[in-house]
Amino acid sequence: MALEHAILVSLTERAGSGYELARRFDRSIGYFWPATHQQIYRVLRRMDEAGWVKHTEIGQDGRPDKKVYRVAAAGRAELSRWLAEPEDPAVLRDGLGVKLRGASLGSVELVLKEIERHRAEHATRLEVYRGIQKRDFPKPSGLRGRELHQYLVLRGGVRAEESFVAWCDEVIDALRKDNK
Amino acid sequence: MALEHAILVSLTERAGSGYELARRFDRSIGYFWPATHQQIYRVLRRMDEAGWVKHTEIGQDGRPDKKVYRVAAAGRAELSRWLAEPEDPAVLRDGLGVKLRGASLGSVELVLKEIERHRAEHATRLEVYRGIQKRDFPKPSGLRGRELHQYLVLRGGVRAEESFVAWCDEVIDALRKDNK
DNA sequence: GCTACCTATGCAACCAGTTGCACTGCACCT
DNA sequence: AGGTGCAGTGCAACTGGTTGCATAGGTAGC
User: Could you tell me which Gene3D superfamilies the record lists for this protein (chains A, B) (predicted)?
Assistant: First the structure.
């Protein structure tokens, strides 16, 4: 598992509350490791009990109190232990493939519409990534170290979405021709 | 959820036992919707109780008896209901991205090795897909209907692996240059 | 004044996927 | 004779992720 580790990476970059982490996951890390606030709160509590992180309660006026977490020594140790450990390659799991495979058992028309819808969503995500790329890494050739790594992860997202959109186009085209 | 539906699609193509389904998932559908035999047995029993599939016990000599499942009317109904229903776009979830993002907190050397290892595994998977493509769809331009759909799903796998391997190459190259 | 949304944390129940194990019997290799 | 691997089904326990709900005060728009 790696939600623990994703949180540790994020908290090492900058301390934050569960809520803030959930926002960060929505915007960046979560593109590669999605997580809801429920999951994040639960894991934070677990890691707190295990001594991987420590929290400081911060009273705010006008807003609810918050707990700001920062990585403890044990957390840093666990993180480098995990970084050195081999990771199982991720598997593809997309219901759209199953739907396409079964298209002829239902309405090919509808499956085609569905693929067009997915194409649009992935194209939007791609635009978001490209926006981040332009804004945060306008000159990638000069990047080094941590920033380079962040950039390369983003590149992974861009490539995945590009390839998905291209596949959708291939499918849409082929299904339309088959229908004629 | 869609394991039910993945199984229904597979069983509609050809009736089979839980064991046979598990083999099929290992070889084809499972590239896009992985499942272990445990999961398959459990879901088959559930679908049997719900009347979506029916089984016939087949005694074999020299081998254990098996239950051959085939899709019942209720299963066909459920399948076309699901096919017409919108599906949430799949999310990317790859620990390797988290590792790369956190690389500078551990050993960049080791993360680089890890990425090379993943590259090799995905390249192997890509070769498997290309082999299937060559063997089963030597002339894709003439394909229609169900065969076309199967081919297009395979194309999705090929594209995903190609793009992953290309990303690995980009990362390996960039990390090596950064290290110099 | 009402609705809606944001910040902030959390419980409880549920569902899906993973892992480890158990049993049988044949075939093949060493 | 013993180990490995294949065919075949299955239980039990666990882990991780999802969904629905609760609470509470502040701000912004109609």
Answer: 6.10.140.190, Winged helix-like DNA-binding domain superfamily/Winged helix DNA-binding domain
pLDDT higher than threshold 80 for residue B168: yes
Closest nt by CA–C1' to B38: D10
Which residues of A fall within a CB distance of 8 Å from B94?
A: 32-33, 90, 156
Locate A35 and state its tokens: 């997580």
pLDDT digits (tens, 9 = 90+) for B57-89: 988 777 778 999 999 999 999 999 999 999 999
Rounded mean pLDDT, A146-161: 95
The enclosing domain of A45 has a CATH number of 1.10.10.10
Indicate the residue among B57, B84, B111 that finishes a domain: B84
| Surface of B (79-118) touching A: CB under 8 A | 79-80, 83-84, 86-107, 110-111, 114, 117-118
Residues A51 and A110 in one domain: no
- The answer, yes or no, to whether residue A5 has pLDDT greater than 90, is yes
User: Which of B31, B118, B144 is the closest to A92 by Cβ?
Assistant: B31
The end-to-end CA distance of chain B, in Å, is 48
Evaluate whether residue B89 is within a structural domain.
no
Three-state secondary structure along A7-75? HHHHHHHCCECHHHHHHHHHHCHHHCCCCCHHHHHHHHHHHHHCCCEEEEEECCCCCCCEEEEEECHHH
pLDDT digits (tens, 9 = 90+) for A10-44: 999 999 999 999 999 998 888 889 999 999 999 99
Beta pairing, strands A53-58 & B53-58: unpaired
Of the candidates B101, B106, B174, the beta carbon closest to that of A84 is on: B106
Question: Token pair of B37, please?
Answer: 């035999």
* % of chain B at pLDDT higher than 90: 88
Range of the domain at B73: 3-84
Average pLDDT, chain A: 94
List the single best residue of B31, B71, B82, B105 to mutate versus A (max A Cβ within 10 A): B105
- The token duo for A71 is 């990585």
